[in-house]
């Protein structure tokens, strides 16, 4: 938290907290806590206002999915109720010209008599330019901007090599990140809740009217077609996020009810603490597609409905107060996954070209990609003839979410077996999923395509069959999401074209493999070894 100077005695000015799509919570919010502190310094009559700007132009430019926008709107509706209980108004406005958002925000601040505005830093290039413009224009408008770090546990730039360079390999970065956290445990501290506004705000001729403004149910052009199903599967709000976290930390490991809501079955913590919890089994269960072994917190983390700090604090609570990061236990392995989220944010900050559809490894920008619309459509629809790929793709299409192991499998298949440009897959995930987070999505796709930091080496190519047998050993995940294969017995479910008779296969109504694994692998190896050649 930055040190603040006192305002002149008797000055009564208001403060705006500018909420974005990455920090949609009241709890443990650095910029909101700072805004509340500024209000307390302002003296009697100073009030806190929360502002959120919907920008359809921004949504289109950044491939935001209708499901993600709907989740944001539902979250805002919950926040409006929470804030109103504290006599804090939430004002939601829409502004299509994204490059003029700073000007619009400062106009609103002037109309409300605002002296200060706070916000949490976003590290994507467009967002940085937006905030730089706000910092530059703010003082001229009589408004003082304050932007603070909140999105990542450790601020980007804080973890560097001995000679001051950013890391591009996860393992040494993770060791230094963990050391940094041990030296600065305050980075996990929870920020205080905002103080209640004085009730007089509701009688203010301008500010009182802000309580009347409601959150829209949809943004034109981004209407969510399966809204009712998404509401059931991914309930909005911080209470839902905490319940999902508690079920992961305290709930027992079990099979996934694929059509149940995202929170699963409510199971209390056992007397043995983490011993019988889902997090205890995370080290192995996280790679089994048919088990409810992951936290399913990604929609809440990507929207900032819960902080990554809160996740690590919860993990620490079940390991006798010691934060574990590593591979020797479920909680430690989950800590590594939270660290990966930070890592990709640090990469984005250090090498902003990844925000501009550029590969981190520039030597692979000349790799010869295929642009076959029919094969791309087959991949999107889950009709590739590779059951594990198709099952994962159909889960993503239905739920707006895909198991992380499934994401790696389908990304590697698109980029190595079909040799389709990784940018096509990256955009498809962002336009389809409810948990679209640019840094993590880009980092995952470039890892799979062997073009990013610490990438999967180009010569290591996932074999769909072995991935299928390892990650869905009984075939339950495949049978659920690919109903054509529901009655296929035994291990034939993993490769029905090869393991069934011709007559048996033809009765299934399931497609043949659209590419031969051996030939596809050889093509990928050839093209990555000699970028630019066929």
TrEMBL record:
- Asked if the record carries the keyword Flavoprotein, the reply is yes
Cofactor(s) this protein cannot do without: FAD; (6R)-5,10-methylene-5,6,7,8-tetrahydrofolate
Q: Where is this site: Electron transfer via tryptophanyl radical?
A: 369, 422, 445
Cite the Photolyase/cryptochrome alpha/beta domain residue spans from the record.
14-153
- Quote a single Gene Ontology cellular component term: cytoplasm
The record's free-text note on cofactor binding: Binds 1 FAD per subunit.
Print the keywords alphabetically. Chromophore, FAD, Flavoprotein
- Is the keyword Ligase assigned to this protein? no
Pfam families (alphabetical): DNA_photolyase, FAD_binding_7
Superkingdom, taxonomy of origin = Eukaryota
Residues annotated as binding FAD are 282, 294-298, 334, 337-344, 435-437
Q: Which family does it belong to?
A: Belongs to the DNA photolyase class-1 family.
In Swiss-Prot or TrEMBL terms, this protein is called Photolyase/cryptochrome alpha/beta domain-containing protein
Lineage of the source organism? Answer: Eukaryota, Fungi, Dikarya, Basidiomycota, Ustilaginomycotina
